[in-house]
Amino acid sequence: MPPSKKRATPGFETSLAELEALVVQMERGEMTLEESLQTFERGTALARECQTALREAEQKVQLLTQVNGNEQLIPMPPGAHDPEALDPHAV
């Protein structure tokens, strides 16, 4: 990718993976209060980035699903809004 086209922020998958790693770290309960606050702050920023990326992707899908110039919304499958329903490794 040319230098002018590089992303200023990491991609969705990278942000999500980092967010998941932060959650695991926090769940261990081994951080100081200051470390926990910094990790939480980073996690909320990553969550916002992921939400923005998902919103943008949804908008692109809506644009791509236009039929004969008329937007045709295609319903999402049941459970699509539940991330655990889409994750085969979720407990």
How does this structure look, described?
This protein is mainly alpha-helical. It has one domain: Exonuclease VII, small subunit (Helix Hairpins). 58% of the residues lie in helices and 4% in strands. It contains 3 helices and 2 strands, in the order H-H-E-E-H. It has helices at residues 12-28, 33-64, 83-86, and strands spanning 66-67, 70-71. Strands 1-2 form a two-stranded antiparallel ribbon. Residues 84-91 have low confidence and may be disordered.
In the sheet with the most strands, the strands line up as: 1-2
Low-confidence stretches: 84-91
C-alpha geometry: elongated
Please trace the helix and strand order, writing H or E for each element.
HHEEH
The count of domains is 1
Please, how many helices? 3
User: Rg from C-alpha positions?
Assistant: 17 Å
Could you estimate the helical fraction of the residues in percent? Answer: 55-70%
Average pLDDT taken over every residue: 79
Largest sheet: 2 strands, antiparallel
- The CATH architecture can be named as Orthogonal Bundle
Per CATH, the superfamily is Exonuclease VII, small subunit
| End-to-end CA span | 38 Å
In a few lines, what is going on in this structure?
This protein has 91 residues and is mainly alpha-helical.
